[in-house]
C-alpha cells in the first residue's frame, strides 16, 4: 500500500487479494469503513491500513 488518501473498491480488492464482491461485503458488514462521493464508493487509506492492522496475528 502507498500513502494515497482514497482507493477504489477494485484497487482494495487487488491489494487484499480478494474479490470486489467480498470487499463490498466487508463494507456492508461494517468491517471495512468507506465513504461515498457522488455515488462513488471509496476507501480511505487510513481505514484500509486499520482494517489490515486489526487482523494481524502476533
From TrEMBL:
SUPFAM superfamilies: Putative DNA-binding domain. Residues 6-55 form the Helix-turn-helix domain. InterPro entries: DNA-bd_dom_put_sf, HTH_17, SinI_DNA-bd. NCBIfam families: excise. This is Helix-turn-helix domain-containing protein. It comes from Aquipuribacter hungaricus. The lineage of its organism: Bacteria, Bacillati, Actinomycetota, Actinomycetes, Micrococcales.
Amino acid at each position: 500500500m502507498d500513502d494515497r488518501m482514497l482507493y477504489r473498491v477494485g484497487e482494495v480488492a487487488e491489494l487484499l487479494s480478494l474479490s470486489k464482491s467480498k470487499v463490498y461485503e466487508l463494507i456492508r458488514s461494517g468491517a471495512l469503513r468507506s465513504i461515498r462521493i457522488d455515488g462513488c464508493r471509496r476507501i480511505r487509506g487510513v481505514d484500509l491500513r486499520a482494517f489490515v492492522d486489526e487482523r494481524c496475528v502476533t
